[in-house]
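$ fold --in a.seq
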Amino acid sequence: MRGTVLAIEENRYVILDLSGQELLISVDEHSRRDGAIPGDEVRVFVTKDGYAAYIQKIEP
């Protein structure tokens, strides 16, 4: 999925997806992250159990 990071909380990211829906994406010690901060556009790959496998920052 693609979207914009709205906020980063302790163990989850709040993402606004392209349809305008806010999604809560859980992260754990296995989640890879590119250092995205609020306002960055990202691509998120989610595992079958609902955790982020990879949060990839999309460079403009």
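$ fold --in b.seq
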Amino acid sequence: MHLNASQITVMLPVRDLTRARDFYERALALPAGEPRPDGKVVYHCGGTEIALFPRPEGTKAEHTALSFRVDDIRASVEQLESRGVVFSDYDLPGLKTVEHVCVLGSEKAAWFTDPDGNILCLHEDIPSPPA
């Protein structure tokens, strides 16, 4: 068994599947999800799947559940904001956003939540300077 060749599915609990599907399909512009017999709805993103599954109590996670790598974080933030996505801003020691974006070492990041409180992120890799 070689896990590095396995399909990865990120499991995200949601209280209201209809509301969650609207957010993922309208605001994030993901192609329509595939309903599964067990009640999940699965989205295909690159080589990964996102599975929304009904859970009456929703999420309990206080960390980033998933991050979408983008080529231009500022343009991506603007595009998602135009569809109603609200980004979080932080001003903490070692974590400060400017216009929703924080530089963290070798990447830029911006966070937002889905309607069920799952913390999602956009990140853009910062190219290493030439040696």
